[in-house]
Amino acid sequence: MYTFDKRAYDRRVRWFRQARFGLFFHFGLYAIPARGEWVRSTERMPEEAYMPFFHSFDPARFDARAWARAAKDAGAAYAVLTAKHHDGFCLFDADNTDFKSTRTPFGRDIVREFLDAFRAEGLKVGLYYSLLDWHHPDYPHYGDRHHPMRDDPAQANDGRVWERYLTYMHAQVRQLCTQYGRLDLMWFDFSYDDMLGEKWRAAELADMVRTLQPDILLNNRLEASGEGFGSLYRCQPTPWHGDLITPEQMIPPAGLRDVRGEPLVWESCVTMNNSWGYVRTDRHYKSADMLVKKLVECVSKGGNMLLNVGPTAAGEFPPEATAILDKIGRWMDKNAESIRSCGPAGLDKPEFGRFTRNGSALYLHIFENALGPLPVPQVKRDDILSATMLSDGSEVPLSASWVHSDYPDVCFLDLGPDPVLPDETDTVVKLLLKEGF
Ligand code: GLC
After folding, report:
1. What angle do CA 324, 272, 299 make, to 5 degrees?
2. Is the CB of residue 267 below 6 angstroms from any atom belonging to ligand 1?
3. What was the pLDDT predicted at 1?
């Protein structure tokens, strides 16, 4: 019988709540057609049409250490790689299939190289593992909601043995949990229709993963997808409950709480452009400025942001992704303290931007300057022990200007004579507050 142990739970999610910012990597054969990781499904592509990508897969410029350095420099504290996506292609040397990177011209175990390199940079590591599998003959084809061959009656499911697929899938997860060292996060994807929970033999699967990797975190997609919060939200945890909720391509309007009102652990996964896997023609990139602000938004609402990179078939980040990560990294280099280990401030969202907080340190993320001295709502002058610019430690005086003499109860900061904020992305002022605030 599974019992939910709240103390063990709090202990294992601690690093995750502190990490706040991670990178997601969607990498696989689909980088070659460069039309997204769903290409087989959206184009109803038969297996034979996909196999040429397997036979030519050779990301010659793949360098896990360069990826890991870039992630570290961007300020990410953890990273998650697609060990297997829905197409079924394994980026690791799976014992029970030939459909894997080690059997392509590339011939290397990408998961192992990734894990070694990211751990060496001090990042926590996670693996994404698709519960769906469009390569395996025992996965339902005809009539499935997502399978590439869903409309083809010739691909009827007689003779497909579901239990055989489950055995295969469980064995792969076991191999990842036993032969690849310590994993910090297992990111299953995803449940739909009746394909959820025990259909995946989820109790056994979750138990196996937790037994083999006692400290690992599981996401909630054995019982949900980007839709549905899962059983932790309902305060009735199933044996396969996720440790974290996984909103996708959005940030929950007010963070996430369970039905009793207690804060939940969550992570918004988001793309830089509009695609997970590499899509050459998708140039709809969010700016680094915007992504920093969205990261701050997640933290201010008690969540994490998992930002995706879809490397090219050559094994490199698209140049736009590199530029974005560089710029995020320059901001994080000065301001990570206002992200890591931070959470909601317990105050209303201020007009100038957002608050994050870690104990007695309150961080003012100023996206928009005031005209003149900057009002800090809900904080009194007497509550403030010090105010400094986080980027350089310089003092930020409290304003004594006559212009706000009619507002004696509001505290104003004097950011200096320049109306333009020193960091146009997000200028962070750190307030040390009196105990008890
Ligand atoms: C979706 C998609 C998938 C992507 C994932 C990331 O569930 O199926 O392609 O990997 O979201 O969250």
Report:
1. 85
2. no
3. 77
